[in-house]
Amino acid sequence: GNIGYLVTYYNGTLALDDAPINAGTSYSAIATVESTNYYIETTNATQTFEIAKRKISIAWSDYSNLEYNGDNHEITNTPSNIIPKDQGNIGYLVTYYNGTVALDAAPINAGTSYSAKATITSENYYIEEGNTTQTFEIAKRRLEITWVSEKTYNKTPLLPDYTFSNLVDGDLSSSLGIAFTGEYSSGVTNVLYDQNDNVRANIYILS
Length: 207
Hints:
With 207 residues, the chain is mainly β. It is 0% helix and 43% strand.
């Protein structure tokens, strides 16, 4: 016969319309009967249970051998183990940092203290421990200089002419801060340095 058997699901003390979907630790199922002939033993009427969060793994790539090129350096990051209906809906976000300072976008300039950190806002997922952050560096770009260094004495300071190559479009050579120091003597070869002592030219001033 009909014994009026019913199972109701709860989240804590809140009765649910259906069995739970989302991750949680306070779920229970309570069975009841409406019958003059049957009863459920009290210790057997309720079953508590949990639904664990789903673990996400992130595949980080394209973060090595980076060099300044004037563009943002976005690190490829591919989360996996997300069920199809949740794709795009878990609040997945990657934030870039220079040291401890959060950046508005992926970094452009050369530096050695960059990192990309992934976070999610979904209550149903978590990112695998040790997989949330990827550090990376952006190397300086080598600037190549062609020197035209022969000058003729004219009683004024004489500096070598030069042209740059491997310069990123949009970066002006006038902004690179090239400056020369040293004494200039006619009839001898003068070694010239920039203010960083890492670019030099030999200039011969005709007497």
